[in-house]
Amino acid sequence: SRNSSSYFDFGVKGIVNVFDVETGALARQSHRQALPHGMCWSADGKNLYFTSFRDEALFQPELEQMPGGTSYHRAPVDGPHAIGIFRFSPTGEAKEEFVVAGIHPIARPGTGSLFYHLENEIWERQPDGSAKRFEFRDVPSHTIEISPTGSHAAIPVHKKTPFTSGSFLTILSLGRPEQRLIVDTNSVYLIRWAANPDPVAQPQ
């Protein structure tokens, strides 16, 4: 939020709260504050991934260090203002654990791997800590959306022409990412995968 002096204040507004949906009671609160660069549950539902400054002291800046324009800068993954992805266990008491440098985490069902943005690239981190990069000719402007089976991903990419709406939607098989389906270039997409899609009847 921005205060009356046109400075951005992180404060307690970034704390992650986990609630019991049956009772509404607060089940757990993170020790570390979060940034608005994505959040997701792990595929097994046991952990929550969120983004935060690597250096927690940056959440308590002097006002002259944080002019409003700072909030429009690119999210860095290295240097003094580095941002990373942290693992948060809603049932444990340990503090959050740093996982990897990057933003916009999203878990891949059935594998335990984690997709994320690193600078202008998309990476997949395996449970053993190894990672691979996915090649894109155009940089995706949104977090990728993975199908419930974990087999495919949908990625909307905004047009690069200033003041022009629309995007193109890329569908790719995560097993064979070199094969991609480009849907069209004139729409804006909001993606929702079907959890259990019904089979489509084929004409006889």
Q: What general form does the structure show? A: globular
Number of helices: 0
Number of strands: 14
Radius of gyration: 19 Å
Order of helices and strands: EEEEEEEEEEEEEE
The poorly predicted ranges are 1-12, 64-73
Which class do the helix and strand fractions yield?
mainly beta
Strand content: 35-45%
Rounded mean pLDDT score: 76
Distance between the termini: 59 Å
Described by strand count, sense and barrel closure, the largest sheet is: 4 strands, antiparallel
Outline:
The protein is mainly β and 204 residues long. Helix content is 0%, strand content 37%.
Write up this protein.
Helices cover 0% and strands 37% of the residues. It has strands at 15-19, 26-33, 35-41, 48-53, 83-88, 97-101, 103-107, 114-118, 121-125, 131-134, 145-146, 152-158, 167-173, 180-182. The strands form 4 sheets. A 4-stranded antiparallel sheet has the order 3-4-5-6, with no helix packed on it. The chain has a 4-stranded antiparallel sheet with strand order 7-8-9-10, with no helix packed on it. A hairpin with a 6-residue loop joins strand 13 (167-173) and strand 14. The protein is globular. It starts with 14 loop residues before the first strand and ends in a 22-residue tail after the last strand. 18% of the residues are buried. Residues 1-12 and 64-73 have low confidence and may be disordered.
